[in-house]
From TrEMBL, chain A:
Record's keyword annotation contains Methyltransferase: no
Species the sequence originates in: Trametes coccinea (strain BRFM310) (Pycnoporus coccineus)
SUPFAM superfamilies linked to this entry: Adenine nucleotide alpha hydrolases-like (SSF52402)
Binding site for ATP: 57-59, 63, 89, 167, 172
One GO term describing the cellular component: mitochondrion
Subcellular localization: Cytoplasm
Keyword RNA-binding: yes
Transmembrane intervals: none
The protein's name in its UniProt record: Cytoplasmic tRNA 2-thiolation protein 1
GO MF term set: ATP binding; nucleotidyltransferase activity; tRNA binding
GO biological process terms on file: protein urmylation; tRNA wobble position uridine thiolation
Principal location: cytoplasm
Pathway: tRNA modification; 5-methoxycarbonylmethyl-2-thiouridine-tRNA biosynthesis
TrEMBL record, chain B:
Species of provenance: Trametes coccinea (strain BRFM310)
Polar residues: compositionally biased ranges: 420-437
GO biological process: protein urmylation; tRNA wobble position uridine thiolation
Pathway(s) annotated for this protein in UniProt: tRNA modification; 5-methoxycarbonylmethyl-2-thiouridine-tRNA biosynthesis
UniProt keyword annotations, A-Z: Cytoplasm, tRNA processing
Molecular function GO labels: nucleotidyltransferase activity; sulfurtransferase activity; tRNA binding
Compartments where found: Cytoplasm
Name this protein carries in UniProt: Cytoplasmic tRNA 2-thiolation protein 2
Family named by the database record: Belongs to the CTU2/NCS2 family.
GO cellular component, one term: cytosol
Region annotation (Disordered) ranges: 279-316, 416-443
Transferase found in the keyword field: no
Gene that this polypeptide is encoded by: NCS2
TrEMBL record, chain C:
UniProt PTM: C-terminal thiocarboxylation occurs in 2 steps, it is first acyl-adenylated (-COAMP) via the hesA/moeB/thiF part of UBA4, then thiocarboxylated (-COSH) via the rhodanese domain of UBA4.
Protein name, per record: Ubiquitin-related modifier 1
Cellular component GO terms, alphabetical: cytosol
Superkingdom: Eukaryota
Principal subcellular localization: cytoplasm
GO biological process: protein urmylation; tRNA thio-modification; tRNA wobble uridine modification
Organism in which the protein naturally occurs: Trametes coccinea (strain BRFM310)
Function: Acts as a sulfur carrier required for 2-thiolation of mcm(5)S(2)U at tRNA wobble positions of cytosolic tRNA(Lys), tRNA(Glu) and tRNA(Gln). Serves as sulfur donor in tRNA 2-thiolation reaction by being thiocarboxylated (-COSH) at its C-terminus by the MOCS3 homolog UBA4. The sulfur is then transferred to tRNA to form 2-thiolation of mcm(5)S(2)U. Prior mcm(5) tRNA modification by the elongator complex is required for 2-thiolation. Also acts as a ubiquitin-like protein (UBL) that is covalently conjugated via an isopeptide bond to lysine residues of target proteins such as AHP1.
The keyword Transmembrane helix is assigned to this record: no
Pathway: tRNA modification; 5-methoxycarbonylmethyl-2-thiouridine-tRNA biosynthesis
Pfam families, per database record: Urm1 (PF09138)
Glycyl lysine isopeptide (Gly-Lys) (interchain with K-? in acceptor proteins) crosslink residues: 112
Family recorded in the similarity comment: Belongs to the URM1 family.
């Protein structure tokens, strides 16, 4: 078979078949479409203002490694005028993060971006290894997920940034749409396709790779020779999500556009008005000041459970009631330091950005 | 960036519960030994049979009157007849049996016990009940024709009219005219092999509906597209039959399980905007079908009723799924214990075809239901809390459902399919350096001047026609020559031909075409200008 | 060797896999190997529903076994009744068969 020419530039030899569209294209055109689609995502959602300080949530894995590269490239190419930082969370899983944190440190030098590493141990007094030794391998993902989210915000506050970008890709978002429908999590379903989320007074968070296929992120890293660590967490995550991911992969194999089509579906509906009205209002956690839908935020509840040796408390309602029945939290309980917004955000925290 | 490791022990998140709660006695009468477990609750046979009738009436009856609801005991007075969509499958077999018991045989055991014999529900609700079967065997190779078997099955029930259609009727102009559709000459076809979906004159208009059907199906890019298209064709055939038989209601045998499957499968095919219609919809034909040619077999009263309605203006058909609270397992148990034979539906498939999104979703949901029995009702409940977001831009020419505005712009932005010839990949984007205001330069190419089917399509149907598989897909009809230009279903052809001829009634369609053209010309001009400057 | 006679019925289209016969009378051993084994001296257990499902697959099923069994039990979407009661009330595959039991398998997968 004669070499095919690129379907986009009609000039160079096609060397890859684009997972997203099935088009056969050349390397340069692949870089162009991949980067331009991310740029389109950023401009369409008006994610940034000139002069914004933006932290890239960097894990050393493929998504965030490619994100750091693409953010730097686009910031220079289109002169976004952003100040970029790297922010890493060390969960304290022996043998899991050690190598990938090395990748992040290398990125710090390559891209000349300041790096902040914040550990669970430093923030919560618990490493994931210690948590797993208490709660076992079931449900530990709940802890890790809640702790990571809050840790990123706290790290961002330390770096005094306005905005965190994370490497969530299209596959992650499509999977979350399906999961939220199947679990009946209507509140999350309403916001999981938003490119940018911001509570009343938290740091903006967005996902520039919202429409980028996982396969293309890997392909980009491969052709740009970006090295990253592909380490899978040694503590198994939840099975239900595993079912959803396997199903999504089957759908993608049947029709590659399925991932983007699911995201489109997620953007094409919203929660009915009368149901929105019944949703819980956001408040601040009375113990640590972080945003919360209850008196205590999820992280504080989890931490209290760990400290009191009743780790199931934040996982099931029944266990929570049992812990409450045993009396209030002891005075000497370990607490998460009080959450404070960066100074520049405190001033305008009530300004509606119009982005939800 | 999820840490997703799919290899995990099966019980990590959603804890599997015991299959039934507490005792083996019926939760309803508390006395009898249980016969069936429905989502952890135990029912005896008698209470279960009542429960199904109750769920059926509860889902259907509030939708019977044109203005839905009001107090429960008002008389049910539908605006027209009842059309039952029948496939031979489990759900529609149970549905037909329930419709017959409750509204034709007026079976005492199905009546509400409260309110005595003068309860309004003890009267006949529907003047006429029609059953419509669409035989799809000609869409797939080697499939058995069940028309006769189904017709024989209908003899079990008295007081029903039976209409039997074939899937290729969707490509038969004479069927369209019998349905009261405006006669048209199909002149335009669509280039299905090209992502642009250009409309162009048919070289030799086909007069054989079967050939048109097979050419259409063979030109679709994926197995998903083929099965979804057959479902859509069936739905539209039923809707037009409802209109022609003076039916205000079309009921379908979609069970709770199949509803969950079609919701997830719809989401996976990009039909999130139409998630409401998956459960219940009000369908208005477009272009407005003239209702003057009423079914000659219809009685005089019916015809008169029909005329009155056409004077009142737009006719709508309300699509209801009365088994939407009854799971597949409950349907099977009802059919077994009530002695309803299930003829069954054949598997849709052909040699070498990989399962499509619909089949994958069904396998996934049915598998999940076994271990997590409440999943299906959670899915249906969650989707019931959603409403479409954004503006409507007319109805889709193929599926007849509301189309969301702006989907093509969305698609272009998210997946770049062509490259603007003037832009170098590494060149900075001009002097405007702000990431906030720049918008991507659109590819200007001469193709955007050609009339296309695209502006008439909803997101999901556009995806059905254009989205490809990673690997080539074997056609169900390899012997059928792939035509460069393919005939569309009759309702689409009729709308295209009226869009060409008759200006007034199809204003928005014209708007869509003109809009595309205008953008294209501006871009074109921009390129020409630059070219001239260089020269 | 003692045996058990049970009545087996198929519905909802499953009968198509069993020579299109809805009703069957089958006789199976009362005691079966506790684990799959060809050794005659292997430990035995009373025949249960799981054993019957495998027996039906090996002895009565005419075509497309994948539509009847999956992962060592009936495929998801098949309703099983033991003497007119849901098998979920009777311990599913672990139910010990008795002489004269009526077992019904109904497919729910024949669409809407």
């Amino acid at each position: 078979m004669p070499p095919r020419t690129c379907a986009l530039c009609d000039d160079a030899r096609a060397i890859l078949k684009r997972p997203k569209t099935g088009q056969q294209i050349c390397k340069e055109c692949f870089f162009y479409v991949f980067e331009t689609e991310v740029h389109n995502t950023i401009t369409e959602a008006r994610l940034f203002k000139r002069g914004d300080r933006v932290a890239i949530g960097a894990s050393g894995g493929k998504d965030s490694t490619v994100l750091a590269h693409v953010m730097k490239t686009l910031n220079e190419r289109y002169d976004y005028g952003l100040e970029l930082f790297l922010l890493s969370i060390d969960e304290g899983i022996t043998g899991y993060r050690d190598d990938s944190l090395e990748t992040v440190k290398r990125n710090q030098q390559q891209y000349d971006m300041p790096l902040k590493i914040l550990s669970y141990d430093e923030l919560y007094g618990w490493t994931m290894d210690a948590i797993v030794s208490q709660v076992g391998k079931k449900n530990n993902c709940t802890f890790c997920g809640v702790f990571r989210r809050q840790a990123l915000d706290r790290g961002a506050a330390i770096l005094n940034v306005d905005h965190i970008v994370t490497g969530h890709n299209a596959d992650d978002i499509a999977e979350t749409v399906l999961m939220n429908i199947m679990r009946g999590d209507i509140a999350r379903l309403g916001r999981c396709t938003s490119i940018c989320t911001q509570g009343e007074d938290t740091i903006k968070r967005s996902k520039p790779f919202k429409y980028a296929y996982e396969k293309e992120i890997v392909m980009y890293a491969y052709f740009k020779k970006l090295d990253y660590f592909s380490t899978e967490c040694i503590y198994s995550p939840d099975a239900y999500r595993g079912h959803a991911r396997a199903f999504l992969k089957d759908l993608e194999a049947a029709r590659p556009s399925a991932i983007i089509d699911i995201i489109h579906s997620g953007e094409a509906f919203e929660i009915k008005e009368d149901i929105k009205a019944t949703q819980k209002l956001q408040q601040t956690c009375k113990r640590c000041g972080y945003m919360s839908s209850n008196e205590l935020c999820k992280a504080c509840t989890l931490l209290e459970g760990l400290e009191r040796g009743m780790a199931q408390a934040a996982v099931t309602d029944r266990a929570r009631k049992k812990m409450d029945a045993e009396g209030p939290a002891p005075e000497n309980l370990r607490r998460i330091p009080l959450f404070k917004l960066p100074a520049n955000l405190q001033a305008n925290s009530n300004v509606d950005t119009g982005v939800r | 960036m999820s840490c997703g490791n799919p290899v995990a022990d099966a019980d990590a998140l959603m804890q599997r519960r015991k299959k039934y709660d507490k005792t083996k006695n019926c939760v309803k009468c508390k006395v009898a030994q249980g016969n069936l477990v429905i989502r952890h609750a135990v029912y005896c046979k008698e209470c279960f049979l009542h429960l199904v009738v109750h769920k059926f009436r509860r889902a259907l009856e509030p939708t019977v009157n044109p203005k839905p609801d009001g107090p429960r005991k008002t008389t049910l007075k539908p605006a027209g007849n009842l059309l039952v969509g029948f496939s031979g499958g489990l759900g529609s077999s149970v549905l037909l049996d329930l419709v017959h018991r409750c509204y034709i045989a007026l079976d005492k055991s199905t009546m509400p016990t409260d309110g005595g014999s003068h309860h309004p529900r003890h009267e006949r609700v529907w003047t006429r009940v029609i059953v419509c079967y669409v035989e799809v065997c000609d869409a797939f190779p080697g499939m058995k024709d069940r028309t006769e078997e189904i017709a024989k099955h209908m003899q079990r029930y008295e007081g029903l009219d039976f209409v039997s259609l074939r899937i290729q009727d969707a490509f038969d102009p004479s069927w369209w005219e019998r349905m009261g559709g405006k006669p048209f000459t199909s002149e335009l076809g669509v280039t299905l092999a090209d992502e642009g979906l250009f409309l162009q004159a048919l070289s030799s208009p086909s007069s054989d509906p079967l050939a048109s059907l097979r050419t259409y199906l063979s030109s679709l890019p994926t197995p998903t597209a083929i099965t979804t298209s057959v479902q859509t064709l069936t739905r539209l055939l039923l809707l037009h039959t409802a209109l022609q038989t003076g039916s205000s209601h079309l009921v379908l045998g979609t069970s709770l399980t199949s509803l969950a499957v079609s919701l997830i499968s719809g989401v996976a095919q990009g039909a999130g905007f139409n998630i409401r219609e998956e459960t219940q919809e009000e369908w208005v034909p477009e272009p407005e079908v003239s209702t003057s040619s009423a079914d000659p077999s219809e009685n005089a009263a019916g015809a008169k009723e029909e005329k009155q309605k056409s004077r009142k203006g737009k006719r709508t058909v309300r699509v209801v799924r009365p088994l939407r609270d009854v799971g597949m397992k409950e349907c099977a148990a009802w059919a077994w214990w009530s002695g309803v034979p299930v003829i069954g539906k054949e598997k849709w498939g052909w040699a070498g075809a990989k399962p499509g999104i619909g089949t994958l979703t069904k396998d996934f949901i049915v598998g999940l239901e076994k271990d997590y029995p409440s999943t299906v009702s959670t899915i249906v409940r969650t989707c019931g809390k959603l409403a479409p977001k954004g503006d409507v831009s007319g109805s889709c020419i193929l599926c007849g459902r509301p189309a969301q505005r702006g989907v093509q712009e969305w698609k272009t932005r998210i997946s770049i399919h062509s490259r603007p010839p003037t832009q170098h990949p590494t060149a900075p984007n001009g002097s405007n350096g702000s990431a906030v205001e720049t918008s991507p330069a659109c590819a200007a190419d001469p193709d955007s001047l050609r009339p296309s089917l695209t502006p008439y399509l909803c997101y999901a149907c556009h995806t059905t026609l254009t989205s490809k598989s990673a690997r080539p897909v074997p056609s169900p009809w390899p012997a059928v020559a792939r035509a460069s230009t393919v005939t569309l279903p009759v309702w689409a052809e009729a709308r295209l031909s009226s869009a060409k001829g008759d200006g007034e009634s199809t204003e928005h369609v014209h708007g869509e075409i003109l809009q595309t053209r205008r953008v294209g010309q501006e871009e074109m001009k921009g390129i020409v200008n630059e070219f001239l400057l260089d020269d | 060797m003692s045996t058990l006679a049970v009545k087996v019925e198929f519905g909802g289209g499953l009968e198509l896999l069993f020579s299109n016969e809805r009703s069957h009378r089958v006789t199976i051993p009362a005691l079966v190997p506790a684990s799959p084994s060809t050794d005659d001296d292997a430990p035995k257990k009373p025949a249960d529903l799981t054993y019957l499902i495998h027996w039906l697959k090996d002895n009565l099923l005419k075509e497309r076994a994948e539509l009847f069994v999956e992962n060592g039990t009936v495929r998801p979407g098949i309703l099983v009744l033991v003497n007119d009661a849901d098998w979920e009330l009777e311990g599913e595959g672990e139910y010990q068969l008795k002489e004269g039991d009526e077992i019904v398998f109904i497919s729910t997968l024949h669409g809407g």
